[in-house]
Each structure stands twice: as structure tokens, then as C-alpha cells.
Batch of 3 targets.
Target 1
Amino acid sequence: MSVLVLGGAGYIGSHTVYELVDRDEDVVIADNLQTGYMDAVHPNARFYEGDIRDENFLNALFNEEKIDSVIHFAANSLVGESMTDPLKYYDNNLYGTMVLLKSMVKNGINKIVFSSTAATYGEPENIPILESDLKEPTNTYGETKLAMEKMIKWVSMAHDLRFVSLRYFNACGAHKSAKIGEAHKPETHLIPLILQVPNGRRGHINIFGDDYDTPDGTCIRDYIHVTDLAQAHILAVEYLQKGGENNIFNLGNGVGFSVKEVVETARKVTGHPIPAVISPRRAGDPARLVASCEKAKQILGWKPSYTELDEIIDSAWNWHKNHPDGFIH
Ligand code: UFG
């Protein structure tokens, strides 16, 4: 039996495939290559190019392969874009998941691990954030991810289907081989943008606001290494295989770092002065997002291995310095 990774050519999906292959799992990938890259596809996984909104494609795939579990990463994930083009997110994320669930039910595939996000919480009530805390997304991306979680839940109540939703905080870093890493187009995430400065691709990093209610005035985030996220997906598949009930877990380190701290650490790691310019706040940015990840630790037995910010940034730098333009040759 195989694990199907939808979106396995994307950032977190490709890292999860690498970890699955390392554990001798039989891995099948489906990706429409809209934001993923063929260069990120592991050579030992079977690759199908196609779109989850295409039910015929999914039915044919489930017919061809013996799939035990699905890990669902296939979605658009840019917060800013989700605000200017919300229907793209309803179409690819929500409608895509509807077609996927239809096909899974039809083909008797009954386990799904879903890629969710801290963006489902919106402006948090408490820090650290618990899975049970209020969820009021402040952008279309988070809204569609929350709706996808709920769709999976209701479908699981009506059909033979069990799920785990994993709400990631700030995914970052790269595979230890530096063969794959973060490469978004356009890039909007803090760490890759900072590393474009020592790479000579930009002159400075903008710090979006230094008047937040935090010790140094800049936003605080919980940075979690992509390989640790990948490991959590594998544990979630095993949890479902052992009969685990429907569940939702936060994935973070449980420690927050400010934008200024991230820039300072990147200066130390790269040895480059990385000029920073204080700029206006970015709309919709909460001041602090830090996970409580006790539940994942207790129930899944998950333990992040990259706990220090400098080792996380060092791992990202190891990829970016050799791939200044990502997967573009
Ligand atoms: N930031 C800057 N300058 C930049 C880019 C980012 O100061 O050039 C700041 C942002 O304002 C924010 C922090 O760096 O305070 C982190 O920003 P990212 O864009 O890297 O990440 P976000 O926290 O905005 O987003 C992440 C995930 C999203 C997810 C969200 C949950 O990337 O997918 O957390 O709120 F939706």
C-alpha cells in the first residue's frame, strides 16, 4: 500500500516525501505544478501531473495505485494573494478539497492528513494558542483552510473516513541535503526574503512595523522547521493507521521570535550586515502567534528536532546560498 502526497512538488509536501522515502514508504505524488516544481519531486516517488479539481484524474489515480492514506498539501497559500483574488482560493482550496473527498469516498480511501494553518485562528485571544481557541480568520486563505477542515470533519461523520488536521505556524528551513528548500513565486516569507540580501538579490529587508505591543515592537512568530513538520505528517499517518480518532494538532516550537531577532540571527549566520528598513505595518498581521504544541507531543509523540533559531536559519541559508533563484536554473 502507498501514501499519496497531494502537492508533493511543493515546499512542505516535497520535504514530507523525502522523509517518507527515507522510511522506505511507497510514495505516490500528485501535483498540478502550478506552484510546485518538478525538481522538488523525489526520484523514488511515482509522480502524476494533475489537478485535484479533476475528479476523473483522481478516480483514475485511485484505480491505478493502491492508496492507504492521503496527505493533502495541494492548495494556494499566499495570504496577500488570497485577499486580492479570494475566488482563486475558494476554487482551488475549497472546491478542490470537495472533489478530493468525493473521490476518496467513492474509492474507499479512508485516511487523510490535512495541511492546515495558524491562519485559522486570526488575531489570537491567548498565547500560546491552543487548538480549542477561537478561530476567526483575518484573511481568505485562513478562512478557506478552516472551511476545508470543517468539510473534512462533516464528511468523516457521514462516511468511513478519519482525519488529522495539522495547523502549522511559520514553516521554514530546508532539507539537510540542500537539494530541496523554500521557493515561492512571488516570495513573501520573512526568512527567504532576508536571505535574498546576502545573496545579492535585494539591498535590504523591510521590517513591517516596529510599533506592535511586543518587547522590541516587531511581530513575534513561532518558526518551525519544515523537516519537523514532515515528521509530524508521518506520525499522523501512523496514528490513523493504528486506529486513532479524528484530531487536530498545532505544530510549532512553542517559542516566539520577533522580526528583529530573526534579522539579527540571519546576520550572525550569514556574516552579512543585512540592512533593515522600518516600513509600515502589513495589513492583517497579528502581533504574536505562538503555538501550544503540547497536544501533538503527547498524542502523536512528536518532538521538533530543530529548536534553535540559528540552526533553522543556517539550514535555510544552506539551501538559498546555492539556489539564489530557487528551482529556476
Ligand atoms: N515580515 C517583514 N518583512 C518582510 C516579510 C515579513 O517584516 O519582508 C514580517 C511579517 O510582517 C510577519 C513576519 O515577518 O510579522 C512573518 O511573516 P511571513 O510572511 O514570513 O509569515 P506570516 O506569519 O505572515 O505567515 C505565516 C505563514 C502563512 C500563515 C500565517 C499564519 O506563512 O501561510 O503564518 O498567520 F497563514
Target 2
Amino acid sequence: MIIILRKNSDVASVKKLEAMLSEKGVTANYIKGTTQSIIGLVGDTTRIDESSIIAQDCVDSIRRVQEPYKNANRKFHPDDTIIDISRTKIGGGTLHIIAGPCSVESEEQIIETAIACKEAGATMLRGGAFKPRTSPYAFQGLGGDGIKLLIKARENTGLPIVTEIMSISDIDYFSDIDIIQVGARNMQNFNLLKELGKCSKPILLKRGLANTMEELLMSAEYIMSEGNKNIILCERGIRTFETMTRNTLDISAVPLLKQKSHLPVCVDPSHAAGIVSLIEPLSLASVIAGADALEIEVHCDPKSALSDGGQQLTPDKFKQTMSKIKDLCNYMGKKIG
Ligand code: PEP
Ligand code: MN
């Protein structure tokens, strides 16, 4: 971090700043220039609060040269993180396909969909039991009963299960879940993130609708700084001025997050596009961009779905998409699962 000092700032104010910095455990190197003086900081600056520095009389501006996240940073952890999930692993060059309905609606629906997903080649099952819905009058999910049905679907198929947590008060329902999802709307629910940091379960952390990649990495940092290093980042589209798609898939997030961080990266083309016909091309693009996992919504009867009917693939369409993904993986020499 470089602190640019105001011209003609008084010595006492600079000394006060230097003392403040050394208390934070960083070394402050004062460099006097002919027109501009600066302080260069050496050490771990992640705990430095920029706003308290900028508030000092002698400070003109600040430039960060190091990212504010450390645990999630590839610079401090050059190798890819590989996360153990039940009998499989995520990260490190393979591709996982997390498929299943937007919401768990009934035993018949989740089991039928799970079997179809497994037959087509999915490696994990998704399904929302606690649903974040824009309208309070829309289907809110089956809650704890939905979790029980997901566990039944896992017993039937052997697929590890992924489902979203909305409140830490529900955590006990998640004790037998393989991956806990933090949805886009909760990406900056810092109390939830901190509590999830205290457990060791893998967390699928989705990017918020209007959040930058750095904010996503800082949310991962919240979880990791409490001890849980098992994070999968998920790009699920962001809000832009475009109205033809539900969101805009930020494909550049995939290689960039992988450059900046060692954590596995998942792409959810379903919530990004919101349109069935775009799921296959966006899935293929994501694999080429380097995704470690795809999360795709599949429903045994999308027309009767209680949420996101317009973006869920039928089992037949998912099978077709999977066959394209398998061809691409063969061509790239990438293993599925
Ligand atoms: C979901 O995956 O069910 C979901 C609600 O997604 P997002 O949080 O990305 O909107
Ligand atoms: Mn959905």
C-alpha cells in the first residue's frame, strides 16, 4: 500500500500516522520527494482500514498494490484448492455437473428428477428447500421437509446434494448436506458468512447480483478467515442494462477468478440467462473458460414447476446438453466428476 502525503503536511501529523501504522504491524517507509512525499507500507496490509488513514490530515490519497484478501489469494496459495466432497473432489482440473430442480417440490418430483440427472451424467444434485423469492407470496420452499427429501434422493442415486441456506438459525437442517449454497442475495450477509466459516462443510458461494469480483473474493475471505477453507466460487450472472436475458453471464469472471484465487469456480448458466435455449451454449463456453463445475436447473416437468419454470431444462434437453459437454470434455482431455 502506498500513502501519498499532502504537500506541506506538518511533521507532527506524519509522525502520528507512522505510529498508527506501526501499531498495525506494518513497516512504514517514508520517502521524501521534491514535489511529493509518500509512505510505502511493507507487510500484511489486509487489516489496514483505508478510511481511517484517509481521515488523517497529512494524507492526500492511497493506492493499494496488494489485494485486500489473503486466504483466497492465489499469490499466497499457488496450487489449486481441491475440495473433498463425500466420495469425490471438486477443483484441480475435473468438471462437476450439479443438476436438479430450482426447488424441491415433492418426493416424486425430486426423486424422478434426480434419477434423470444421474442417468444423463450429472455428478451432484441440487434443489432448493429454503427459497429466496422476490415475492413473499411466491412458493417459499418446503424447508426442513425439503432437506429430508433431498437426502432420500441422495439415497436413491448416490449423488452428493447441494442446497441453499438462508438463515444461520436453520443450520441444524444442513448437518447431512454435502455442499451448502450461499445464494446471490446473501453473498454479503456477513453474519451468515462468519458462522459458516466456523463449520467445515464445503460452501458454494454465489456472486451477488450487483457485486464485483473483488467483493465476491472478500466474501470468501469472510468464511475463510473463520477457518473454513472449503469454498467454491460461483458466477451466476450480474445485473446489467441488458433486458433480453435475466442477468448477464460474466464469462470473464471464470478465468479472472481462477487467476486471482486458488478456489474452484462454478458457473450457473440457468440463473445467468433465465432462458432454456441459452443454457447449453453458456455451459460449453464456461467449460472452455475453465470452470470447475456447472450448476444447471433441471425439472422433470418444467411447465408445472413452482419456481423458475422458464429456465429449467427437461430431462431430455439436459441429456442433449450433457452429451455436448461430454464431447467437449473429451476433446479437452477433461474428466467429468
Ligand atoms: C438458486 O440457485 O436456487 C438461486 C436462487 O440462485 P441465485 O442465488 O444465484 O439467484
Ligand atoms: Mn432457480
Target 3
Amino acid sequence: MPQTMQNESLVLASRVTPSKRQLQWQKIEFYAFCHFGTNTFTGKEWGDGNAAPSLFNPKKLDAEQWVKEIKNAGMRALILTCKHHDGFCLWPSKYTDYSVKNSPFRNGKGDVVKEVSDACKKYGIKFGVYLSPWDRHEKTYGQGKAYDDYFVNQLTELAENYGEIFCFWFDGACGEGKNGKKQVYDWNRYFTLIREKQPDAVLNICGPDVRWCGNEAGKYRSAEWSVVPSFIGNQEYTAERSQQTDDKAFSKKIDSMSSDLGSREIIDGIKNFIWYPCETDVSIRPGWFYHKSQDFRVKSVKKLMDIYYGTVGGNSAFLLNIPPDKNGLIAKSDVRVLRKLGDRLRAEFSENSAVNADVTASSETDGNRALNVISKDGFWQCGEEDDTPEITLEFKESIRIDKAVLCENIETGQQIESFEIFAETDNGFTKIASGETIGAKRICCFKPIKTRRIKVKITSYRRIATLKKIELY
Ligand code: FUL
């Protein structure tokens, strides 16, 4: 433990670790959101709950097409809007008539949730549920327990009938305004039910497992902490900061809750902390739902790569929305970008040069050797007295790289507060990258460089310093 670690808040924060389900979720890294429903047919972003079910008619719906494109683009899961704010259900719920069963889709015999979850199973990606708590159609909304019963019944249908669900996504948005209906959600009841039916599922946004990044514009923090003060995990705190009007500008707003949620300065004096890792949600288009007029406004591969590096490579998950069109297919314009994105990701991370290195460190602990950073299992942990640990990777022949990937062993917490990376050239060691947090993953990009030695220096950390992986591309 470094000399500077005398502060009580720092010690407490350094002892917070993720749950098993949070660890599993963290490995998914990059996954898709599919906003689909009556809005797809009415052109709206927020349906008012009055659109006729007869409008819902995706004649060529092919969930396998969605999943194949999503998987090929490098994503490992898909979250479907089973019910958005308009209340229309994409599965034939027993508890309402406002669903696919009263639509022309598959002559009222269809079930989009089933088709999408089956396709995910078939192609080996995970399936997640978005179920909007705010419901503009359901009459009991605003009546307290009556609506909670309705919501719990729907959660039960989804949790019981569609196999394994990796995530339940609870949106904090509500546009009722001051004079609108006021529903006090019984969150604990919802969470208890899901823990019982789907114990491995994470509960996102208004749930305790995964935190909303605070904006919908794809903006990420330069230092992202997964250990944050406990009050940030409060549902009301999240809901108050979520979307309150059908305001097109909200998706571009980048005033995220705060740019720093966990540094030494911010947590000073705080005693209660939670592991609450970040998820960055953003749409591939301006809207969350498909609008033909936005076919020319699909984000570029360059923009998506930037968000990928900043989120997956910045200790956050990346949740990219790809809204299927009126036919029930991912539109050609989006497919084109997704395919290029997949190719690009494969090319950027094709050959990890670090695997051939000789690894040495300024210190190491029993069982947690420096060499572990290039092997599949284990991690490196520096010695107790080592205030600025260094780890060096040496190669027999020069390697040419433009990216370094660093991962902390988050099973023992998030501890590193700053680091620097150096490459040896003819002029000695030159600094090629630096940063604050690492967490689950940090991707550093730099100008291509030829070198025979790479050194990672941890310039500040909390209680223990670990690295699980170093990769070089
Ligand atoms: C927001 C919602 O209001 C949007 O319609 C969308 O579902 C987005 C992911 O969350 O809060």
C-alpha cells in the first residue's frame, strides 16, 4: 500500500468489488439495443399510447437478419424494447390487449420477443429485455399497487418464457410532468422477482447493477470509475436526471451527470461506496426508432470507432442502438456501416504482439507474477512497498504497434489512479501514452512506433496495484 493511502475514504473505496453478475456483464463489452414498436410505423419517438395495434405490421420481419449483422459487427448481446413508453407489447401478454396479438403481424399469432430471443440463442449472443416502467397506455399507471401488479406480471412473463436473459433495462424517462400521473414504482418488488427468476441478469439504469453514463450523445469520461458514492445508485437520482420531455435535443445533450464520479477529490469524506459500472447508450442514428428520413444520417465507422475506444476502451460498456425498419429488417444504410465496423474491429485487434514478450516488473507478489499479464489466467500484483510499480515487456525483434490495451484485475477492485506507457527507441524511453483510470479495460491509441521494449508505469494507485492483461497491436 503506498504511503499516501492514509485517507479513510480511499481505503473504503479500494475495498469495493463487483458481484459475479457484474463481472460476467463486464465481459460482454459491446452490445446492441433494438428500438422497435408502434413508433417504427408512426414516425414518433415517444408514442402517446393511442396508436392502433393494426399499425404494427412488419411484413418481412427476420430476427435472424438482425442478429447476424449485430454479431458480425462485434456485438455480443441484444436488448429489445419489449415495451416502450407507449405501452405496446411486442409479445402477446396475457395482461393487456395492447400488443402484437391484436396486430396484423403473423395474423395476430406472432411474438417478436420469442423470434428475437430464439435468434440470439441460435447465433450464440445474449438476449436482454427493455421494459419501460413509464406506460402511457395502461389505465392503472399512476394507481400505485395496481400498476405494480401489472408491471410485475409482465416481468414474470418475460422472465419465465424466453430462456436466459442477461439484462433488464429500466428506463428512468417519464414525461408526465408536474400535473401528470404520478406512479411511485415498487422497485424492490421488481428487483426481488428478477433475482429469483433470473439470478444472473444485471439490472441496468434504474437498477443497482449497471449505471447510465448520464447522456445519450455517445460522450464518455476521460476517467471512468466503477466505484462511486452509494447515493448515485438511487433510482430517484437516476430518474430525475433522465428524459422528461419528448425533446429531440435530449439525445444530443452532453451535460452528463458529472464528469468525475470517483476521483480522490470527489470521494473525499464519503464513507459509503458501491460497485456501479458505466454503460454508454447511443443510437447509430439521430433517433432511437427508425425514421426513413434519417437513412442518410447513420453515424460513420470513424465516429463509432471513436465511441468504441472511449467506452469499451474507457472502462464503460458500449450499448449501440440499431433500430429495425418498418419491414422488420435492419436497413441497408445501417447494415453497410455495421459490416465495415466489424471488419475494422477485427483488423485493429488481429495480432497481439505482447504474447511473445519477456516480462519483468519492479516487484511482484507470490502467485501473481508479472508474466501473468500475457497469459490467459491470473494477474500481476506489485509488492506492498512499491509506490510506483513498473512492468516491462521486451521483444527479441522490434514490434510495430499503435495501440496498447491494459486491464486491471477488477475482481480485487478498481485501484489505479494514473499510469504512463513508454516505448524504447534510439533516444531511450519515450512516453507514448498516459491516463488516469484503467478498470476493466483501457485502450490507448498512439502514433505507430517501432520498439523492442514497452514499459507501463503505475504512477498512482489506492491499496493494491494489479494488471490482468497487457495487449499490444
Ligand atoms: C430514453 C427514452 O426516453 C428514449 O426513448 C430511449 O428509449 C432511450 C434509450 O432512453 O430515456
